[in-house]
Amino acid sequence: MKKRILLAAAACLLLAGSGVGSLALSSDDSTAAVNWTNTGGPLDESGFSRLEQINAKNAGKLGLEWALDLEGEVTLEATPIAVDGVLYFSGSYGKVYAVDAVAGKVLWTYDPQIWKRTPSKFRSNFGVNRGVVYADGRIFLGALDGYLTALDAKTGQELWKTQTVPEKSIHTVTGAPRVFNGKVIIGNAGADANMRGFVTAYDQKTGQQVWRFYTTPAKPGENGGDPVMEMAAKTWTGEYWKVGGGGGTVWNGITFDPELNRIYLGVGNAGPYNPRARNPGGGDNLFVASIVALDADTGKYVWHYQQNPNEAWDYKATANMISATLMIDGKPRKVLMQQPTNGFFYVLDRETGKLISAEKSGKVTWAERIDLATGRPVEAKNIRYETGETIMWPSMIGTHNWQAMSFNPKTGLVYIPHMQLGARYTTNVKPGDFAFGGMSVSGYKDPKDPNDGKGALLAWDPVRQKAAWKAPLETIWNGGTLTTGGNLVFQGAGDGWFRAYNASSGKPLWKFNAGLGIVGAPISYAVNGKQYVSVLVGYGGTTAALSDFLNVGWKYGAQPRRLLTFALDGKATLAPSPGPDMQVHAVDDPSIQIDEKDVAVGRQLSIACIACHGVGLKAAGSPAPDLRESQIALSQDGLKEVLKGGALAERGMPQFDFTDGQIRQLHAYIRATAREALGTRKASDEAPLPSRF
Q1: Domains of the chain (ranges, CATH numbers)
Q2: Which end of the chain is more exposed for a tag (fewer CB within 10 A), N or C?
Q3: Residues 6+ apart with CB under 8 A from 305
Q4: Which residues are catalytic?
Q5: What whole-number distance in Å separates Cα of residue 147 and Cα of residue 93?
Q6: Which residues have C-beta within 8 Å of that of residue 480, sequence separation ≥ 6?
Q7: pLDDT in tens, 94-131
């Protein structure tokens, strides 16, 4: 009680003497209202700020307070955190920044220097990091190479670091850690490469492992007599361990529930995608595409709910999960809410894991409905491409992906970054085509549906399970949301506009041209009685793998990556920067002779480059340039210096063990695609390469 009184007193002192008027709060005044210490804001991951100084009546007076250019950064997916007047956030490859929250000046930085210690990890994923977390004077960072690091929040000094994944595995870490009960928890990515998923909790002070929970079973005989893993193993058939670890990685959504002392895990897709390659005898494949509840102290299993039994489409439950208490049928229910990729909005009883309700929030054709009695989907026919090909909605990126949704307890609405796109799954692969477990997947846009390939900000009523309002967006890949006690919703979009809406009605109230697409979620915080809103600006990430649909004209390195901070009556301005450009500025040397056999082989070799350079090496707003436009890739020697010599390792470009012959073949393919863009070569009529996620 004494600690609570001291916190309240400190907050009152902090709020006094503002030059812009009082800082109203929607509930008790505490440091939790003025700070934002967790990626999702409060521990409930709601993305809700109780601050009300900026509200629906005065949002039109918002202006830029300050901007910080972030040289060398590319994709910025992190949600900043705010602690006692300091902002902390991570860059593309895990560099941590501490910035004065009022002046916008850098106080310290910490660079994990992945390119020095484990450069091979750059081959496994594009450069991205979704943030840091604060607890008890420490900042915690999970980096791409799997290391979890604790930093002193005041100085940036490294306190400890520990490797959280097997050294030689293809696991990577892209998500933000979470803190609870003196522990810090981190998951990992790698399901697309069939890696076995798990999460690990560590002691915040020492970095010592406290517990670990696996989300898919080991091969028979290696589950250590663990009854939970034995239970899961019964839902897998065939020799699944021979094609990898089954997937099910927890790379984003983790929620701590202090009321029930539980951890909720959002578990990812299966690997390989094709169930006949990993699960020929059928079975649900626990715990892929599931929410799993664990005891926070021991890491022991409590319950699970599986959204997609025998998952086959890169569907995943990795979106953020929001805990709340809702009035349902006249009674308060402790619930957990999630909008995963599969297109249904789920409300679960978080005490028991029992499904309360689930409804389609967009265009969904893979299932008719979710059976509330069994909790299982009523699936459409041929969705596992039994006849060789399936086209269905939503696509592998879903109606909602990792970009955080938010929940406003005052309006009772959830605000979702919504998408509409289909996908084509096929097992009709020809010799030489690239396939995942005997199948390939690509995005699909229905030419007769004007909403396909577009996004929206969707306000969803979780009790009535229907839309309250919807604000359409021309771009499909947009930012996470923030909602506030001032009846506002903030969201950045792929087109570069940062907008504020009335949270009740969806009426647009304000917008600002950030000069580059936004994918991360904003935050709100207060210092000395003044409320601010901050957001990172840096379009990219998955835009490479789906460049045909996510390209909105942002060029690699052309626009500054920034942290922008806004307040009422802000007067700062941004320096001009290049706008979107959809033209391909290909470069070529017509004197270079290329062999068509080399072009064909180079096309297959380019699969290793899809995550960063895009399908067909046609990157768009991604962590790497469009190689058709690259001066370095114009010559074999330049390509060799980068691929084998590691000339750009410090900027996130990995070294490869390609032979000189393979570099020649890859160079031939790049020259061929550049000439197709220039119109000096007939475009290839080969089947499109698959997307990679």
Answers
A1: 596-678 (1.10.760.10)
A2: N
A3: 290, 291, 346, 348, 353, 354, 355, 375
A4: 314
A5: 12
A6: 47, 79, 403, 404, 405, 406, 417, 491, 519, 520, 521, 522
A7: 999 999 999 999 999 999 998 877 666 666 667 799 99
